[in-house]
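Lecture 7, part B: from sequences to assemblies.

Below are the input chains for today's worked example.
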Amino acid sequence: MEATVIKIENLQKRFGDFQALQNISIELEKGKIYGLIGQSGSGKSTLLRCINGLIPYDEGSLTVDGLEVSSLSGKALRQFRRKIGMIFQSFSLLNRLTIYENIALPMKCWGYSKSEIDKRVTELLEMVHIPEKRNSYPRELSGGQKQRVAIARALAMNPEILLCDEATSALDPSIAEKIMELLVEINRKLGITVIIVTHQFSIVRRYCEEVFILENGRVSASGKCTEIFLDPPPALQAIMGKIDVLSLPATGKNIHIVLPSGEQSATLLSEMSKKINVSYRILSAEQEQFAFEKLFSLFINVEDEDFARTISYLDDNHISWTMKEAV
Amino acid sequence: MNSEFLAWYQKYFVKLIAPSIVDTLVMLSATMVMAIIFGFFFGTILVITRKNGLRPNQPVYAVLNFIINFVRSFPILILLVALLPVTRAVVGTTIGVKGAIFPLTVAATPFMARIFENAMVEVDPQLIEAAQSFGASNTQIVIKVILKEAVPSIVSGTILATITYLSATTIAGTIGAGGLGSVAMNYGYHRFDDRILYTGVLILCILVQVIQLIGNFIYKCVQKG
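Predicted structure of the full complex, as structure tokens:
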């Protein structure tokens, strides 16, 4: 089940004097949705293009299904790329072709028969929920619909991996969500590995299972979304610009508590103050939506002398927490 | 007046001006067809070999780029004259429609090459990346993606070139090529016959309008897809 599909070891890429990627070593498992997040210039799009050989890397190893990408060229590289679909920020549709012809283009390039193409395009249009747009032109479509067409085209060759380069960045937030929901649906249905490059952390948080944070060409943090977003490393804070806005008091101890949403969470704090007689201040409380669950994120402040009792109470109740210093 | 006009019409329009319109159109269309073929060829090479092209090749690009700029830096009349010996060697004559098509093609080809290059360079690079990402070959990318998307720009550029080279054929007319330019100069200007001179100009005027009209119509059609 958890087979590695992409294995990257010590990957290096330079553009002239600029080190775009440095010592990237990551492994991606089949069928998961991964997020690759970073500010512009952090190397995330470069890394994405190394995976399908659009950009050659200088050193290190990048294998897809055990195949070293840099060893491929010519026809072999083109064959290899059939396994990897890609979508872009600007949708990349041909304006002078109909939606049908756009989706059919990869199959035409690979010499499929008319009837095969017709069957597959019809299937794909259903899959991305725009069968009625078959004979329209891209300019008649909204941004969200265009991205659906691009997704259908990317899926035309039955790829194992789908690369999304800022695929939702040009869309309204509500449309972006719809597109992400479609990608999740396709991921579940086809078991395709999805890699999402974005600078929109809300997208990654809601839809990705694991996230890699890129900073100046290095992976500065990685892990499950729930872990990473509730205790954001500095690199992520720069992108989110959110939690560091919260000014934590310098007196007492600040504790960040993460709770699954539900019965227990609602009463946790009042129970705590009753049972161990600790008074606390709530600094912030938020409910955050993650790929698989909703979590409560709470910042509380307790007196120094109450700290030990508080954390032992939290540990006893198997609640994850971290201490936060005032900034 | 009426019979005098009819006599002029018989003598000059039917026998002189009308055939010269045909000559001009033959020169222009032959020149443009050749220039489109060669211009497409060289324009495509420029697009492919340029930096960030499908197969970058700095020496090829630099040489071709230089030659195109070099030919384009000649004023049209000077180029036609400078090419006279080459024209004689290649076509066997330097006069008439036959003698004009070769040098006009030489002049128009770099112009068309630039039009193809500019139109194709404008195509969104992400579109090319998308085509590469599903495994299209370079030939397929050039024909099915770049050229396909560039057609409207190529059409509008070609209209521009056609009108530019219509006036070039009249310039060629002054140094031995036939056509409207030659008639307007030799029978109109040199013989102080304003009627012929301005009839020639009027016909050129109409030709330009017609070319532009047809061009706009084609542009509209290709833009739809």
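Note for the exam: The longest strand of chain A covers residues 4-15. Keep this in mind when comparing with the next example.
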